Fold:
Amino acid sequence: MKNEFKIIADLLPFQSRVLDVGCGDGTLIEALIEQKDIDTRGIELEENKVKQCISKGLSVIQGNAETELGQFPDKAFDFVILSQTLQAFHQPENVLNQLLRIGKKVIISIPNFGYWQVRTSLLFFGKMPITKSLPDSWYDTPNLHMCSIKDFFHFCIKKKIKMDKIIGINNQKISSINRINLEMKNLLSEVGIFLIS
Amino acid sequence: MNYKIENIKQITITKPLKLDCGQTIKDFPIAYETYGKLNEKKNNAILIFHALSGDQFVAGTNPVTNKDGWWNTAVGAGKAVDTEKYFIICANVLGGCMGSFGPKNLNDADNEPYGLKFPVITIRDMVRAQESLLEHFNIKKLLSILGGSMGGMQLLQFCALYPDKAFSAVPIASTASHNAQQIALNELARQAIMADPLWNKGNYYKDKKTPKNGLAVARMAAHITYMSDKGLQERFGRKLQEKKDYEFTFDADFQIESYLRHQGNVFVDRFDANSYLYISRAMDYFDLSKQFKNGLVGAFQDHKTRFLIISFSSDWLYPTKNSKDIVIALNASGANVAFAEIKTDKGHDSFLVNEPEFLETLKGFLDSNFEVFKNEK
Structure:
C-alpha cells in the first residue's frame, strides 16, 4: 500500500464512518475495512474502477464528486477522504465546502507544487514538471488547479478552516508540518496531507 | 397461456391478505420455481422478482413455452447467478397468468373466470403475497434479492416492508416511482388491448377467442421501449424483410416490422390480456415515496441491507435518473449502497441480454456478499 494510504489509515479511529471521494479501485477502502473495521463508502467517476470495487463487495457509487456530493446529509461521515484529486476539479473550493459539510473532519492530500523537483524543473529546464506524484504531461494532465502545501495552508487560514494536523511525505520519510517549518517542508515534501475541519 | 398443471409448482396462501384496494383475499395460489439447492445453513437463497411480462421460469427451459427461461443469460450453472452455488426462487406475481392467482382464475362465487371482477392489485400486494415463500422454505434471511424493471419495484417494496429479510439487494433498470411517461406507455398498451372487440370488457375466456390482436399491439409498442434508438438502427436499420424492394403494400416490408409482429405474435400465446392490464396498472400505482412520511428516504431509514443499484446508459424507459434517485435516497438515509451505470446500446433490455459488463458486476457483487454473509455470526 502507498505510504500515503498508511498515514491516512493511521489518522482514522476504529469503526468510524468514512467516505473515500475518488476511491479508484478501492485499495484504500479495503485496507480501512480490514485494518480498522471502518464503515467505508466510496464515490468514483470511472465505470471500470467502480466495477472493480463492486466486485470486491465495496459500497461504491459511480458518480461525479464535483456535482453529486449534495446527496449526502450534513455530517453524514466521521471522516471524508480526498486523495490527490482536489486539483482536478473545476471548482475545488465548492468541492471542499461540500466535503466539510458532509464530514465531521476531512483528510485531504495534495501533490505539492512547491516540491523542489517541481521548482527545479521549471527553473532550470523551463519545462512543466513531471514527477512521481505529477506523472502526466501538460497536455493530458487532469490537473486544473495545482497548488503547493503553502498555498493550501494559507487558503485554510483565509477561509477559517481549522487545520488539526499537517503531514508531509518525501519518499518514505514523513514529517509533521507547522507554521514554523512550513517554508522548508513546502520545499521538501512531495505530498502534503491535511486533516481539517 | 394454457399450461399443464404438473409443470407448475404452487403454494396456497391461507393467511388472509388485505389488498391495497381494500378487498381481502385468502386461500389463493402462488406459483413458483426454484433452481439449485438450498444449503444446510439456508444462507444461499436468492429471491428473484420478475418483470411485467415475465414468469417464474427464470432459467433453463420454460416447460410451458419450451423456450429459454427469461433470465437464462444471468442464471444457471456457472453463470453470474450461479445455480451450483445459490438457491434461486422466483414466483409468478399476483395477477399473473402462469399459475398464480390472476384474472383468469375461477371465481368461487359464480364458477366463472374473474375477468374484471379480479381486484385491482398493487406492487405491495404482489410482494406481500410472495413473502410467504420464505416461510415455506423456512428461510430467515435471503442472501440477496434481484429484480429488473418491475422486478426492481417489487424488490424496493420488499426492502421497505421487510428490512431484515434480505442481506443484499440489486434493483436493476428500475424506479421507485412510475413517472408520467412510464404511465403513458402502459396506458397505450392497455388501450390497445381494450380496443380489441374480442376483449369484451375482459370477458373472453369462454369462447377461447382472446383479444390477441390488441395484446400483440401492446407488446409491440412495449418492445420498442425496451430497445434504444442506436440498438434498433444497428440491428435493423432500413433492411428489408426477405425482399429486394418495397412492395407498396402494408405488409411487413422492413425487418423491424417483421420483428415486432413476431414479438407480438409469440407473446399472445403465453400471456393473458387481462393479466397485462392488471400488472401494468400495479406498476402505474407504484410510488414508494408516498408510503413514508419523509418520502423515499423514510423507506430505507436504518436499513442494513447492502444495495447495488444498476442502470443502463441507453435505457430511456427506466433511465439512469430513476436509479440515481434511489441512490440519493439511500445515501440520505445512511444505507449501504453501491451504484453503477453500465455503458451499452442495448436499452432497457440490457439486463436480459448478454451484457458482459453487467453480468460481471452482478457476479462480483453476489459472490463477495456471499463470503461476508456466510461468515456472519
